[in-house]
Design brief:
332 residues, alpha/beta, TIM Barrel, 11 helices
């Protein structure tokens, strides 16, 4: 396992991180029981993964609790990152619908204390705003409060996690202007390079780390989703239309010659393409088994793509039809 700095924080994080949302929600085709979840976390640690990313909304704290239990007594050996912003304390999660958000100073203080208790720690390495919109990112009081907690040592750094869907370009660019923001998290993969390419370029200038989620394009790039796949409405991948899947598979065919000449399969090409970007700090694949953790961990070996291959991949992407990107209602 290789490690990188998380932006200006100075924190060393594993190139492959553990996105722990699947431990709290059964939105990826599998319900993970607690015993298996703990085995997965321990296996990830044994393989060198030290960055564990979660959020309070994942199972209403369940994911945080599991991480806290597994790494109790090992606090200085792991980098713990969690997120807040959805009011899970006054609202019930119904399907995949977004809950009301709250980022007031009072709520931030309350949510942080709850997360610390569940994680069994007195500080969190990375505290994140979960899917904030432009008005929140422009609210200086929020970041003044986070700066205060940083000075107190209760949080070591903070990130802005963009979403939930792909997009939020302006939100990402403005997040990097927040003086002490350590990282920006975004959807980015070899098939969906916008707005990631723009954000990655700006991140290098701003010394902000990029955290990448959905690196496998919802299973297209691991072969778990193909033309014959029937996705349940309960599954988070149900937002991907049949036409999107068909077009994505055609793009994979165009990328295969690059993979083959490098001795890689398409999954390896996809992850190594992302890790070839200097401002990417950690990649957070969606995992539901120890075998998947082992597979992704092996891809962090320092052998990534050369500039010619990267440029060819970007060139192919630029030939493909554009797609809609989400954004706040008002970005002016």
């Amino acid at each position: 396992m290789k490690y990188r700095k998380l932006g200006k924080s100075g924190i060393n994080v594993s190139e492959i991180g553990f996105g722990a949302w699947t431990l709290g929600l059964d939105w990826w085709g599998k319900k993970i029981e607690d015993d298996e979840a703990k085995r997965m976390l321990k296996r990830a640690f044994d393989l060198g993964i030290n960055y564990f990313e979660t959020g309070d909304i994942y199972g209403r704290g369940k994911s945080e609790k599991l991480i806290g239990e597994v790494f109790s007594g090992m606090r200085n050996q792991v980098v713990l990152s969690t997120k807040y912003g959805y009011d899970i304390y006054s609202n019930e999660q119904i399907g995949h619908k977004e809950l009301p958000q709250k980022f007031t100073t009072e709520f931030t203080d309350f949510a942080l204390k709850q997360s610390l208790e569940r994680l069994q720690t007195d500080y969190v390495d990375v505290y994140g705003l979960h899917n904030p919109k432009i008005p929140t990112i422009r609210d200086k009081q929020i970041f003044e409060f986070l700066d205060k907690k940083t000075k107190e040592g209760i949080i070591k750094s903070y990130q802005i996690a963009l979403g939930p869907a792909i997009g939020w370009t302006q939100e990402g660019l403005e997040s990097m202007k927040v003086t002490n923001a350590t990282a920006v998290q975004t959807v980015y993969n070899i098939l969906e390079q916008n707005p990631g390419n723009t954000l990655i370029d700006e991140a290098e200038k701003s010394n902000v780390g990029i955290l990448v989620r959905v690196p496998d394009a919802s299973g297209i790039l691991t072969g778990k989703v193909n033309a014959d796949t029937k996705v349940s409405e309960k599954d988070h991948r149900s937002v991907r239309s049949g036409n999107w899947i068909q077009e994505a598979l055609k793009k994979v065919d165009q990328l295969m010659p690059i993979a083959k000449r490098n001795g890689l399969n398409i999954t390896e090409l996809a992850i190594k393409f992302i890790l070839s970007q200097k401002s990417v700090s950690s990649v957070l694949p969606t995992v539901v088994s120890e075998e998947e953790i082992e597979m992704f961990s092996a891809m962090s070996d320092g052998n990534y793509l050369n500039d010619n291959d990267k440029n060819e991949i970007v060139g192919l992407f630029n030939q493909w039809p554009s797609y809609d990107l989400k954004s706040s209602v008002q970005t002016a």
